[in-house]
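Re: your question from the hallway

Yes, I did run it. Sequences:
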Amino acid sequence: MIGRLRGFAAFWYDFVIGDDWRVAVGVIVAFAATFALSRTAVPAWWLVPAAVTLLLPMSLWRATRGK
Amino acid sequence: MNGGALFVAVFLACVVEAVEALTIVLAAGTARDWRSAYIGVGSALLVLAGVLAVLGPAVSRIPLSGLRLFVGGLLLVFGLQWLRKAILRASGHKALHDEDLIYRTQLATAEAAPVDRRGVVADWYAFTLSFKGVLLEGLEVVFIVLTFGTNQHAVPLASVAALAAVLLVAVAGLAARAPLARVPENTMKFAVGVMLTAFGTFWGAEGAGARWPGADAALLALVPAVLLLALAMVAVLRRSAAPEPDIVTPVVQPGEVTP
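Structure:
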């Protein structure tokens, strides 16, 4: 039973999070920062695109380093 | 986003998933037993319909800002996964997805497995292979239909796009009785990764409280911007890619999620 639950959890982790959990954490942090900034007078729309511009190259760098 | 863009995004993503499911079903049917493989397909479609019936109304009850944050986040994480793999493939750091090779590998494995009859299913291996393949690839289809559809209040249009993609691939594949190796799957995955990432960025930021300059028109800048970033990454990574064959033997199991 525990093995099946683990398998179920592993499937959903692989399905949503995938190979690099840091990308998911980075997205959550970017959304939180966007929410905080949107409460101020400063425009907040640029934060998530900026996060993507950082997260994607960093994830690719981790995937290819050492090759 | 207009209906046309939604249709294209969902259609392309679903063609990719359907081609992968088709390869598994063809291997199960050809190497083992077509009837058991079809029962597996039917059972998986029933489960998927149940998932859609439960999740669809539940997701549509979430308030729009919360929905955009939740769906945007999922879509962005999902899209970055697709894009990451597509860039690694395009730059030579990861083996290209080759349906012919996957089909031959599945076929050899299926032929070696023993026959096991259970109830009305004459060949349990063919049944489970088809069932798992269709269910896992189908879950991605359901996910894409729900996320795109609910966000734009266009679940019927997203469903039609998905259905059209699945029917097109099923008819073409079953008529040919061969994997659809000519479908430019790697290019399509690249395009879908760009679209999922751009839409996830747009909806997620909006759900978190940001206001886009130009409202929906911001997507017209976001999609090409993500595409340019991805192409730049491919160009940079190509320089560091070791010279190796474009295609190597993939180890793809029916239980593996393969964006």
